[in-house]
TrEMBL record:
Protein name according to UniProt: O-methyltransferase
Entry-linked InterPro entries: COMT-like, COMT_C, COMT_dimerisation, SAM-dependent_MTases_sf, WH-like_DNA-bd_sf, WH_DNA-bd_sf
Residues the record marks as active site: H262 (proton acceptor)
Keyword terms: Methyltransferase, S-adenosyl-L-methionine, Transferase
Domain O-methyltransferase dimerisation residue range list: 34-101
Any one Gene Ontology BP term: methylation
Native species: Amycolatopsis rubida
């Protein structure tokens, strides 16, 4: 594991060594302005409307059903960030950054930008002092006491956006994750909370003899057919709808979860893991495989340290250090046997039943 001295500041994308400290901090303090601007143009699908060439704010406003001058001001702000370019003739064009707000490009960030601006997600940060005082997330309170996933069941628009966000934001790392761990030594891989099945598809493509189980809430597994068919693995995947707080499917040799446990506190995670442990009772060679962040020590920059705040205020979840992962797995009857760095910001963590 990488460590760093408390007197050495590893590189952070949020800092610019060439700028005075005051200017660096000001950029951080006002970062929310940039985030909500990008959310707005992503939600409107502006980048998709510019694929065929530059357009004016008036043309874009007509296409998006928005107020022309107001949209212009958002476009101008986005262009100042390098997202779109404003031309002298008043038209706006795509830039390399804006390309990743298109819906149809591999690794698109459109849906994650859309998701982060969802009302209850965004507003959770406005109640951060309450979370600091109580240790409790505000997200469920803003959703009338419901978890994020229960809330999605009643909000199909955001359910679709969330599933696409989870699929597309991880697209760039799927191949590396599938190659980091040897799934070929198992007969059946169960992807628990596997969404639309993108990672499971990559694993099965590499191992033609392996069968798969895709387990998630109904909206997710129902939307997975196209993904599985596109990667020509649909015939080897059993899609199972359900909640991992009630059960996990039986019959797998390895249970995979990617970016699932960071949504939940230690108690909930232990409950989920114990269900998996019971499913492996008659499989001493079975394994648990997690794809999660591992928080590094001291001042070392890592995406997980800011993601941890998002998990805290929105869901009550957390990012974990290696020792916290080791302790959590042990509480559910697993021994942490390895943690291997894979596609950023994740590690592949293996647990063996004990």
């Amino acid at each position: 594991m990488t460590t760093s001295s408390p007197h050495v500041r590893p590189h952070s994308p949020w800092r610019d060594d060439g700028a005075p400290p005051w200017e660096q901090l000001r950029k951080m303090v006002t970062g929310g302005w940039a985030a909500i601007t990008i959310h707005a143009v992503a939600r409107l699908g502006v980048a998709d409307l510019l694929v065929d060439g530059p357009r004016t704010a008036a043309e874009l406003a007509e296409s998006t059903g928005t107020h022309e001058n107001t949209l212009y001001r958002f476009l101008r702000a986005a262009a100042a960030l390098g997202v779109f370019a404003e031309r002298e003739d008043g038209r706006f064009d795509l830039t390399p950054l804006a390309e990743y707000l298109r819906s149809d490009v591999p690794g698109t960030l459109r849906y994650i930008a859309y998701f982060f601006g969802e009302t209850t997600v965004w507003n959770s940060y406005g109640h951060v002092m309450e979370t600091l005082r109580t240790g409790e997330p505000m997200g469920p309170k803003l959703r009338d006491g419901r978890s994020w996933f229960d809330y999605l069941e009643d909000h199909p628009e955001y359910s679709e956006v969330f599933n696409k966000a989870m699929t597309t934001v991880g697209e760039a790392g799927v191949a590396k994750i599938a190659d980091t761990y040897d799934f070929g030594r198992f007969s059946v891989v169960a992807d628990v909370g596997g969404g639309q099945g993108r990672l499971l598809s990559a694993i099965l493509q590499r191992h033609p003899e392996v069968q798969g189980i895709l387990f998630d809430i109904p909206a997710a597994v129902e939307s997975a057919a196209g993904m599985l068919e596109a990667h020509q693995v649909a015939g080897r995947v059993e899609r199972v709808a359900g909640s991992f707080f009630e059960r996990v499917p039986l019959g797998a040799d390895v249970y995979l979860m990617k970016a699932i446990l960071h949504d939940w506190d230690d108690s909930d995670c232990a409950d989920i893991l114990r269900r998996i442990r019971r499913a492996l009772d008659d499989k001493p060679d079975g394994r648990l495989v997690l794809v999660e962040c591992v928080v590094p020590p001291l001042n070392e920059w890592h995406y997980s340290k800011l993601m941890d705040i998002s998990m805290l205020v929105n869901l009550g979840g957390k990012e974990r250090t290696l020792e916290e992962w080791r302790s959590l797995l042990a509480s559910a009857g697993f021994e942490l046997t390895s943690a291997v760095r894979t596609a950023e910001p994740h590690y592949v963590i293996e647990g063996r039943p004990c």
